[in-house]
Amino acid sequence: MNIIKKETYSFQSEVKELLHLMIHSLYSNKEIFLRELISNASDAIDKLRFESISSPELFNETPKIQISINKSQRTLIINDNGIGMTRKDIIENLGTIAKSGTKTFLKSLKSKKNNIENELIGQFGVGFYSSFIVSDKVLVRTKFAGNKSNDGILWESSGEGEYNIENITKKTQGTEITLFLKQEEDEFLETWKIKNIVNKYSDHITVPVEIQIYDEKNKTYLWEQINKAQALWTKNKSAISKKEYQEFYKYLTHDQNNPITWSHNHVEGNHEYISLLYIPEKAAWDIWNRENKHGLKLYVKRVYIMDNSQEFLPNYLRFIRGIIDSNSLPLNISREILQNNSITQNLKKALTKRSLKMLDKLSKNDHEKYQSFWKEFGLVLKEGPAEDNENLNLIANLLRFTSTKNNSSEQKISLKQYISNMIEKQEKIYYITADSYISAKNSPHLELFNKKNIDVLLLSDRIDEWMMNYLVEFEGRKFQSISKEDTSLNKFIKDKPIEKEETSKETVNFLNKVKKVLGDKVKSVRLTNRLTDTPCIVLSDSNEMSTQMAKLFTAAGQSVPELKYIFEINLKHELIKKICKISDSKIFEEWIKLLLDQSLLAEKGNLDNPHEFISRMNKLFIKL
């Protein structure tokens, strides 16, 4: 090989950290490196298949992955005849990690004592770096398909911060990776060991994997295929074992954990397709990064088209992994056309329903597994009501909540369970939104409901207020925020002394004085029977923006109109009784303003002028 040009580069800082973690951490499952390299080789051949649709001359030989061992040189070589890489590809793919949030994720890994090996590989699409777990040095020789000359690229590194790139002579297209194994990794120089690993992880990939063996009889080297090379999804479901489904998931996603459940379907008719959908056990580290692509792996008539095809599932189901193989989509389709294709829209509807029914089945058949799913992906699923009105009932059935009767912050109550626990005459599903579970659990709005044994859903996730704008009713029962005005609660109050008290001279005078003090700071002032232990609260008008929604808008940098609350006073409370008797107008005014601030603090969690509130409270303490 003639060296034309050699350059030395430094790894991106995140790659250095990643390599350090890989090389110096104790991995219980080192063999995974081979699965990663074979998976990368398979992807390279799939990409070549796709490119050959428009350029058939690129696919000029039978696709294959070949593995050879040289014990004397302590090398393991993995070779493919896929699409290969250019010099630019080499630098971008093997020198950097083009993902946002990498530093944060690496920091979180460093803080974990156990199972780093189960979370690291595959998280960034950097399975190649797992080579350094078992290698002192790695060489990559590659030639990009379509390059008619014999020019190739050599990449070399010991995984210690730098890598070299040289121009070389390479006659065949594709990529050859040579691992110089560490002294303690002799097992990977044994043919039987490599066969076992391939059978375990890569039996189902569509590309033949061959290993070089020595024929003692004929004194020559031969290539022996060691995998079945059949796409698992094309097989009959009855012929696929549970372990095969699990191993295919790991191959597809680079996830070390088994999936929670899966759904494999072959649909015939106007649109023939096969889908294999998985629910992961753990959320991906970038699940909240909407800029990163999530989606299914798309095949058309067994030909690979693209990874992370987002057109077949809505965004709120982005945690679902798997493949779709369609006979209906034209092969020369572009991504833009694909998004607007009516067939694609029909497939998306079908796959969305299939996914939701898979989750529904899990929720009914395995409560423990569904709870594990909810803890990982519940927040993502809560985006569903806003995005998918067509499947609103299916999504609502899958939602889980905590409530006043649950006595735990764990969200495990379904809406069906809530309805079954409703008391006599209860027609609505009551809920409260707050910044935290503790805040919701101790809200003064709950006093009447606790007294009457009416269960209330406690919603404290940031997305909840937004979600409830789209959850209008469930099974004929309307949702009602208890922090908003609701006259239907009157039927739960047997004693109604307010009508009499409101007309008494003393009460009228008191309410008028309060209204004069507060002026336009509140929308109205009135008495209430909703409270037992609290002197007063504020309520939002039924037609106006809620407190939590206003917080969401403010956090997003959007302006919101000033909220005018209804100020409700508990005339039976001892403090109110004492305030009613105050004759000094200035002291009376200070007390009323203090009560309003207390109510606003309980409702909003903050005040516009907390110093003024503290100062007023201290003055009144001194008076007492």
Verbal overview:
The protein is an alpha+beta fold. The chain folds into 4 domains: 6-228, Histidine kinase-like ATPase, C-terminal domain (Heat Shock Protein 90); 233-371, Ribosomal Protein S5, domain 2 (2-Layer Sandwich), CATH 3.30.230.80; 400-492, Rossmann fold; 498-623, Heat shock protein 90, C-terminal domain (Four Helix Bundle (Hemerythrin (Met), subunit A), Up-down Bundle), CATH 1.20.120.790. It is 37% helix and 20% strand. The strands form 4 sheets. Strands 1-6-5-4-7-3-2-8-9 form a 9-stranded mixed β-sheet, covered by helices on one side. Strands 10-11-14-12-13 form a 5-stranded mixed β-sheet, sandwiched between helices. A hairpin with a 2-residue loop joins strand 12 and strand 13 (303-309). Helix 9 packs parallel to helix 12. It is elongated, with a radius of gyration of 33 Å. Mean pLDDT is 86; it is low at 98-102, 112-125 and 332-337.
